[in-house]
Amino acid sequence: MLITLRRLSCLVLPMLFCGCGDGRPSMVPVTGTVTLNGEPLAGAQVGFEPQDIEGYARPSSATTDESGTFMVGTFGASDGIPEGTYRVTVQKSEIVGKIPDDYNSEEPAANSKPLRTKLIVPSMYGDPESSGLTATVTSDGLLPETIELEGDPEFQTGGANPNDP
Asked: b/e string for 59-83 if b means 16 or more Cβ within 10 A?
């Protein structure tokens, strides 16, 4: 009986220390910068859509700070992203004028007055199909390190949510 317990403990104890892992791919800390017309772009949402990364399809995102710099997060705020190629999107918009006190974001049709939105970043950059932006993540980080955008603001009227472009 003692020999059987020893054999069993030799099999079970190593499994306790191995762990099963969390199933997540290895992450690379990624920082970068976004510019619009050569100037740092603060407060923009940057999205990363994986392309041809085997077994991985989770998008990642970041928000630029006052200097246009961002740190990408996938499972947490700035935990990085796996190595590979990504289609990139960039969005930033703001409400033009004042949001009415009675504005209803749950039922936009119930609003008597639509919202007017200014797209700081041209709308083409907000769609992975039309942005034309790609980035590669290597063990060294993001290539290119700076995402350079060009264009003028656009205006839209409508939208169910004052934060939607």
From this structure: ebbbebeeebbbbbbbeeeebbbbb
pLDDT in tens, the chain (165 residues): 545 545 545 444 444 444 455 678 899 999 999 999 999 999 999 999 999 888 889 999 999 999 999 999 999 888 999 999 999 999 999 988 888 777 777 886 777 777 888 999 999 999 999 999 999 999 999 999 999 999 999 998 865 444 444
CATH for 26-157 is 2.60.40
Handedness of CA 15, 16, 21, 27 (dihedral sign): negative
Q: Where are the alpha helices (DSSP H) in 19-86?
A: none
